[in-house]
C-alpha cells in the first residue's frame, strides 16, 4: 500500500477523495463508520452552525456517502450556541451513539468546553470548525492530541491584517495614516483576544491601537457604537466580526457614511466574504471596505469547483463560503484518515491526520504534526461589482503566515 503522503502527492487535485478506493481495508479492520457533529443550530451562532451543517451535507455528496466501501452515518446534535449544551451534545454522540469522531462545534467558548470533555472522557478524534481564539490552541489545559483545527486563530489573523493595513495606502485613493487603527469587535472571547493581538501586531510595526469598541453579543442597533468609531482620530478601523455582527455593522455604517470617513478593514472574511456578497452585495462594494481571508471563491481547482456546484444544489440563499468549506474539508480529511488507517481506531485516525496534506477549497493545506493546526495561505482584498454580481479583487497575498506552534502535544 502506498504511503499516505506519497499517494496524495501522486493523486494531485483528486487527492483526498481518491484515497477511498485505493486505501480501504489496509489493516485495522473494516468497521462501519459513524461520525458525530456538534452544530449550533439555534442561538446566536445558529447562522454559522447552519453553514457548518451544509458543508457536511456537501461532503456527504462529494464522498458518495461512502467510507471504507460502506455507507457511513452522520449524526448531528444541536449545541444551542452554549458550552453546556455543546458538552451535552458531544456526550450524547460519544456515549449514546458511539461515534468514531466529532466535528464541531462553532465559537471558541463552545469548542473549548467540548475539547475539555473529549480530552478527559470522550477521547475520540475532534475536528473543530470555526474556533478562532488562541486559548484553545495555546492554553496547556486545552491542548490535547485529539483536537485538530482547520480555522486560523486570532494569532494568524492579527499580523496578516496589520500587514495588509500597512499596504492599504497603495490601494486606496485617499490619504490615510496606517500607523494608528481603531478596533471594533464583539465583547466575548473572540473580540477580547483579537484586541490584544492587534495591539501586539501594531506595536511590532511601530503603530498603535488608538481606541476600541467591544459590542455586546446580539446587539442590533450599532448607532451609538458607530458614533464612537467616527469620533476616533484613527483613519483605519479594524477588527474581527461574526456574521451576525457584520450584518448589523456594514449597512448601518454605510448609512452613517462611516466608510467615507474611515477605511474599514476587517479580518477573517468580513466584508469580502461570501456571506456579505450573498446578503448585502450593494453594501460591501461601497468604497472603503476591505478584508483579509483565506477562501477565494474564484480559485479554479477541481475540488473548489465541485464544492461550489454541490453547494449551489442545496436549499440555501447564500453562496458557497468558508464556513461551509471548513466542515466540508474536515469531513474529507477525516474520511481520508479512516481510509488510510483501514478502520476507526482513535490512535490510527490521529496518526493519519497528523501531517496530512491535501488540495482543499482553500488551496494547499496541511495539519501540522506539532499542534494540529491547519497551515494555509491568506490574501487581502475588497469586493467589487462584476456584472449582476460581485467578486473578490485580490490586492495582496500572504503565504506562510501561520505562526509557530505554541501548543506541545
How big is the Rg? 21 Å
User: What is the number of E strands?
Assistant: 17
Judged by helices, strands and strand pairing, the structural class is alpha/beta
Largest sheet: 7 strands, mixed
Task: Give an account of the 3D structure.
By secondary structure, the chain is of the alpha/beta class. 42% of the residues lie in helices and 21% in strands. The protein is built from 16 helices and 17 strands. The chain has helices at 4-11, 15-23, 46-62, 83-96, 108-122, 135-138, 154-167, 189-204, 223-230, 243-255, 258-261, 274-279, 281-284, 302-312, 322-341, 346-353; strands spanning 34-39, 66-67, 70-71, 73-78, 101-103, 126-128, 147-149, 180-186, 208-215, 236-240, 263-267, 289-293, 357-360, 363-367, 374-375, 378-386, 389-398. A seven-stranded mixed β-sheet has the order 9-8-10-11-12-16-17, with helices on both faces. Helix 5 (108-122) links the parallel strand 5 (101-103) and strand 6 (126-128). Helix 3 (46-62) packs across helix 14, helix 7 packs across helix 8 (189-204) and helix 15 packs across helix 16.
Set down the secondary structure blueprint.
Blueprint: H1 4-11, H2 15-23, E1 34-39, H3 46-62, E2 66-67, E3 70-71, E4 73-78, H4 83-96, E5 101-103, H5 108-122, E6 126-128, H6 135-138, E7 147-149, H7 154-167, E8 180-186, H8 189-204, E9 208-215, H9 223-230, E10 236-240, H10 243-255, H11 258-261, E11 263-267, H12 274-279, H13 281-284, E12 289-293, H14 302-312, H15 322-341, H16 346-353, E13 357-360, E14 363-367, E15 374-375, E16 378-386, E17 389-398
Parallel strand pairs: 1-4, 1-5, 5-6, 6-7, 8-9, 8-10, 10-11, 11-12
Antiparallel strand pairs: 2-3, 12-16, 13-14, 14-15, 16-17
